[in-house]
# Entry
Amino acid sequence: MPGFFEALSNMPPVKEMVLKVEIDGKEVEVDKKLHSEILKYGRDSFEIKKGVIVRKPIQKFGKEYELLTKDESGYSFHDGHVYWPDQIIEGGFTWQIESE
# Structure
């Protein structure tokens, strides 16, 4: 194996890999950690604020719950089962939507 180590020592140095992403129409260089995060969540989840790449805030939507409440006129239930309305009476029950 003569010449192997000589050839190995004469090799050009390996170039550092440059990671670039396009956010908001601008191509920006990022480090490995941020690049993997952008790949994980998608580039649409990030934006540029004051020259720094930050993740967009996650929208939280309120939940809606249906509650069975007594009302002036509402349903009476067959055998007390809430999913089998029998007739509409005074002082019966109605389903109301309550938002969180």
Summary: The helical segments are 4-9, 32-41. The chain has two helices and seven strands. The longest strand covers residues 64-77.
